[in-house]
Each structure stands twice: as C-alpha cells, then as structure tokens.
Amino acid sequence: MAYKCKICGKSAKSGKSYSHSNKASIRKFKPNLQKQKIVLDGKTTTCYVCTTCIKSNRIVKAI
Description:
By secondary structure, this protein is mostly beta strands. The chain has a single domain, classed as CATH 2.30.170.40. It is built from one helix and four strands, in the order E-E-E-E-H. The longest helix has 5 residues, at 51-55. The two termini are 25 Å apart.
C-alpha cells in the first residue's frame, strides 16, 4: 500500500531532524491518514484519506 491520500494525493515528504548538537539526520513527514468508507464511481469502497480532506468535506461519507 502506498502511503498516499486517495482524494488529494498527499504523500510522505522528506526532511531533516536536528539533534541538540545540530547534527542532521534524514526523516519522513507522513500525512495523517485514516480509513474511510467513501463512494467512488457509484461504489462504496474503503480507502485511506487524509484528515484535511475529511475536515474540508471533500469526500462523501457512505453510511
């Protein structure tokens, strides 16, 4: 499974984490993905959606 939002395509970004001595190490910033039941092309499917899309009502929740 790709760590990616099904609606907006948001995925993990890379960056650096700095220690107290200012030494850099590479890390990943992952989006907050949640499992949601949504309607895609008239079918109810379960997929991973970021919380930004859930809060902004970009998806239609299936009951």
